[in-house]
Amino acid sequence: MMDNFPHWVDHIIAFVFCIALPLYAARQRTKGPNLIHFSSHQKKQIYISGSFSLFVMGAIVVSVWLVFSRSLAELGLTQPGNFRSWWWLAIIFVFVYLFDTVITLSSKKSIDETVDNWKKRTPFLPTKKSELPEYFLLCFSAGIFEEIVYRGYLINYCWYLFEGYKYQQMIAVVLPSLAFSVAHFYQGAKAVLKIFFLAVFFGYLFIYSGSLLIVMILHFLVDAVGGLLTIKYMKEVHQHDDENNFLQ
Question: Is 13 helix (H, G, I), strand (E, B) or coil?
């Protein structure tokens, strides 16, 4: 048990990260028929600024945690334990993710639909190998700092806030997962659903292992693989678009 938790400061932080930011992010989704095209330079700027924003989010949470003399281990910044109680969750997650990826890219029709969605919803994803260093920095920042906020901090917050409730553990996992998925609403409803289940997996991995290390690694890999896939399947599309623009 941690003394003086949650403090009124924690309520403010939880409101910002669990309600305000997800709702704001959800409103920023691409609208209208016109597709947005970013140059490599613009994408790199987005990745760097995004990495900095994520760092600030994590820094706020860790700073408040330390100000109140709370253990970093409680936040999940420790080595994972209880291997037998969570290894199967990690295996299931990897299997489900790979299965979903194979199904999504199993036919030309599904590939075309996926690429079209990427172009409409996430036009900032990398399409050139030269964009990968900055993109991987963003993946690293998301894996570290989003997990600190949405798993380490908010699960702890909800756990203590709903202490004594019958479904305490489920609530502590589901509410941050919902906030995390809504924050990605700009990717579309289908993506939100997938991200929600991903976040639930991560939440239980954190609870059972007592550490954020595993979920940080998995989070980074999911984002990194996503970027590699967009390079593979969107490169030719952008080259074709550039050729058409040149001819016009």
Answer: helix
Handedness of CA 193, 194, 200, 202 (dihedral sign): negative
pLDDT (tens digit per residue) in 79-118: 999 899 999 999 999 999 999 999 988 888 999 999 998 8
pTM of the model: 0.91
Residue 121, both tokens: 């919803």
Residue 63 carries which side chain, given as an amino acid letter? S
Query: For residue 233, what are the contacts with CB-CB under 8 A and spacing of at least 6?
Result: 105, 111, 114, 115, 118
For residue 46, the tally of other CB atoms under 10 A from its CB is 17
From CA 120, how far away is CA 58, in angstroms rounded?
29
Confidence at residue 33, expressed as pLDDT on a 0 to 100 scale? 45
Burial (0-12, 13-18, 19+ Cβ within 10 Å), 27:
exposed
Q: Which residues of the chain have pLDDT under 70?
A: 1, 28-35, 235-248
174, 179, 182, 184: CA torsion to nearest 10: -110
Contact 128, 40 (CB under 8 A): yes
DSSP letters, 180-242, are HHHTTGGG-HHHHHHHHHHHHHHHHHHHHHS-SHHHHHHHHHHHHHHHHHHHHHHHHHHHHHH
Token pair 């989010």 is at which residue?
Answer: 57
Domain ranges, ordered by start, for the chain? 8-247
* CB-CB neighbours of 230 under 10 Å: 23
The number of helix segments (H) and strand segments (E) in the chain equals 11, 0
